[in-house]
Amino acid sequence: MRQSQLFTKTKRESPKDEESISARLLIRAGFIDKTMAGVYTFLPLGWRVFKKIENIIRKEIEALGGQEILMPSLQPKQNWDKTGRWETYDSLFKFTSFYSKIDYALGPTHEEIISPLLAKFIFSYKDLPKYVFQIQNKFRDEKRAKSGLLRGREFFMKDLYSFHKDEADLDKYYEKVKTTYQKIFKIVGLGDLTYLTYASGGTFSKYSHEFQTITPAGEDIIYICDKCGIAINKEIISEQNACPVCGNKNLKEEKAIEVGNIFKLKTKYSAPFNLKYKDEKGIENDVIMGCYGMGLNRLIGAIVEIHHNEKGIIWPEVVAPFKAHLMLLNNELGIRNKADKIYESLQKAGVEVLYDDRKEATTGEKFNDADLIGIPYRLVISEKTGNKIEIKERSGKKTRLANEKEILKLL
Q1: Which CATH superfamily is domain 322-410 in?
Q2: pTM value?
Q3: Those residues with Cβ within 8 angstroms of residue 166's Cβ, 6 or more apart along the chain or in another chain
Q4: Among positive and negative, which fits the CA dihedral 93, 99, 103, 107?
Q5: pLDDT, mean of residues 210-223
Q6: 209 has which bridge partners?
Q7: Who's near 140: CB < 8 A, 6+ residues apart?
Q8: Which of 23, 162, 255, 358 has its CA 20 to 30 A from that of 281?
Q9: CATH (residue range 19-309)
């Protein structure tokens, strides 16, 4: 993409109404735009990052046997009445149709849709297990939407639901999902700072599990066990004051962002919708369920909270909007022709490249924008580079000169 054709522009000043570093940097660099509190537009650069993360998640969930669907955001009140959550879900957006006078909700979660859906297709033990997921926008009436993408009123989540004939089968799959989640967080650059965190299971089981990423911007408090490496949340520490795995009481307090959670739902949402199956003896049983959530907006926010410096974002290569940022620092025709040729060569080689070919931007503005946007490799062509290209990694300080062949081999 030529930067001269990009309709968005960077901002020199940080937005005054944003608290988190990630929100300030993402807005300044032109990745997102704030529509209102808790609601953001993904701009071209931000949408490229979003799609990278979405595809990583999709690939790993499909490897778990997940089949992708897309459920409606608009949900009928009658489904929420069946689970008793119409009156008890505290962040539910509700409204009444002007024409039909029927009550609806904007979905903050999809148990009330997925359970009656699968009841149309699961009848026998032979139909189990099944794994169904979606990646979709959600709505929650947050009392105080803040911290940019870390806490919004509209956001994207990956929802995976699993359906089993017994708890033993659920337990096996649950452990597989744990491993896959840890793999995803490692791929996107959060692995070293993201902990499997024990949380209350509520009415479902003794424990559920969160995945919490350590950062000063976190709104949650977790306690890390220095013996077995897991964490527990504040609710659990107040109950037992020890690691639930090894019993160790030497726990380190940290701030963290929740980027995923997994629950054993058991029959909580299958029973209200008559989601049953007949076993080998012909006896009807409630289907056992599990659910596994991961917030895409939160992942993007968490990545920026971890990967940045005083100049801007430092994207991990796998989620960066482009792999290389090609910069032309001279408008002299011969140098511009050389830069155009390099741009074409990179594209033909399949390298994702943002080409800063802007004529009106100064050298200083181009360097500042490159640091702010945070693409992994910066390539500079100017009269000083001669017949070579200056290359610098965004995460490093050293620059070096290389020829076109070396650049293509590296990228």
Answers
A1: Anticodon-binding domain (3.40.50.800)
A2: 0.96
A3: 288
A4: negative
A5: 94
A6: 198, 262
A7: 91, 92, 93, 108, 153, 155
A8: 162
A9: 3.30.930.10
